[in-house]
Amino acid sequence: MAQRTVVKIATPKLQREGGGFLVRRVIGGVVPRCDPFLMLDHIGPTEHKPGEALGAPDHPHRGFETVTYVIDGGVKHQDSAGNKGVLKAGWVQWMTAGSGVVHSEMPTDDLLKNGGKQEGFQLWVNLPSKNKMMEPRYQEVPAETIPSVKTPDGNVIVKVIAGESLGAKSTIETLIPIMFLDIHLKAESQFSQTIPESCNGFVYVWRGAGFVGHNLLPAHMGQIGVLGETGSEVLLKAGTQDCHVLLVCGQPINEPVVQYGPFVMNTQAEIDQAIEDYRAGKLGEIPGKEDRFRQTEAAQAMQKKNSSAT
Ligand code: FE
Q1: 247 CA to centre of ligand 1 in angstroms
Q2: Which member of 159, 172, 175, 241 lies 3.0 to 4.6 Å from 182 by CB, making a disulfide possible if both were Cys?
Q3: Euclidean distance between CA atoms 166 and 237, whole angstroms
Q4: 119 C-alpha vs ligand 1 centroid, how far in Å?
Q5: What's the pLDDT tens digit per position in 83-115?
Q6: pLDDT of residue 21
Q7: Count of domains in the chain?
Q8: Measured in angstroms, how far is the CA atom of residue 244 from the centroid of ligand 1?
Q9: How far is the CA of 56 from the centre of ligand 1 (A)?
Q10: How many whole angstroms from 57 Cα to the centroid of ligand 1?
Q11: Which helix (H) or strand (E) segment is 227 a member of?
């Protein structure tokens, strides 16, 4: 089968997002959009002292999907449609914002109070024009419901967040074909994954180091490899240490994209409408907003105090 090469390796810089937490903007920065993917942030890994953990208090989304995958710590979420819950380590939340929601993504009470490690991902998947104004939809998947499959030799473990790998299929429904795999390769092992010929995609090394693509380009923690356009096999290889890689690909939508922050539509008129609807309160609101902004300010002040003390 034809193999995909990696056409570019890039290293996103650390930047601050939401209430001020540190992220690597993997897609949507050093690598621009990769249709249908608008953004990928690697959150942390950050070791928080008590009182320091930050999140993203109340903000809107319209016209796309946000996918949150928690590695460490947790996210307390709430939205204007009345949904609320806690995402724990290993959980995935696939939120189709559609016509729009206001939501908050905050650290768990335990993480804020006692401190601890925070690490995770947020992927933004665009929606085709026909789905942009659909009813918002949630798929919240506990860690134990995400298929985790091993190669026969046990050297490669794949978590199937979306799509299919090693005969295991994700329970998450996507509006366009998407594959989202978290692949753990033990030292010196290798793995080849079949992907649809027509998809766009990338690989992101989030821990360890290895080699990516048919051309086996070296990539280490915090580096993205953009896949070339043709081929239906992606080769990954670990070096002398274990390597954790996200493999993400999807069918391109091939429509115009007009983005204004958390609104992603096809035309400027639709963006103007989104801003107007948000200002008019049509995306709703969540009780307790002031408390979450106050909590965020207090955590920012605590971080400042701790960093000036060291
Ligand atoms: Fe959000």
Answers
A1: 22
A2: 159
A3: 17
A4: 16
A5: 999 999 999 999 999 999 999 999 999 999 999
A6: 84
A7: 1
A8: 25
A9: 7
A10: 9
A11: strand 223-227
Q: Which residues pair with 233 in a beta bridge?
A: 3, 194
* pLDDT at residue 98 in the model: 97
Question: Which residues of the chain are modeled with pLDDT < 50?
Answer: none
The rounded Å distance from CA 27 to ligand 1 centre is 16
Q: CA-CA distances (angstroms) from residue 41 to 26, 85, 110, 231?
A: 6, 21, 23, 26
- Residue identified by tokens 């295991």 is 168
The DSSP string of 264-305 is EESSHHHHHHHHHHHHTTTT---TTHHHHHHHHHHHHHHHHH
Question: What per-residue confidence (pLDDT) applies to 310?
Answer: 60
The structure tokens 């905050």 sit at 106
Give the up-direction half-sphere exposure of residue 38: CA atoms within 13 A in the CB hemisphere: 24
Specify whether the backbone of 274 is left (phi greater than 0), alpha (psi in -120 to 50) or beta: alpha
Residue 262 falls within a domain, yes or no? no
Q: For residue 93, report the distance from its CA to the centre of ligand 1, in Å.
A: 11
Token pair recorded at residue 130 = 């026909």
Query: Domain for residue 263, yes or no?
Result: no
Q: How far is the CA of 102 from the centre of ligand 1 (A)?
A: 8
Q: Is residue 43 part of a domain?
A: yes
Q: Specify the pLDDT at position 125.
A: 98
Give the Å distance between the CA of 60 and the centre of ligand 1: 7
Give the distance (Å) from ligand 1 centre to CA of residue 103: 6
Separation of CA 285 and ligand 1 centre (Å) = 14
171: left (phi over 0), alpha (psi -120 to 50) or beta: alpha
The domain in which residue 143 lies consists of 6-253
Distance 257 CA to ligand 1 centre (A): 19
Residue 6 CB partners (closer than 8 Å, separation 6+): 203, 212, 213, 214, 215, 217, 219, 225, 226, 227, 228
CA 105 / ligand 1 centre spacing (Å): 7
| Residue 90 within any structural domain of the chain | yes
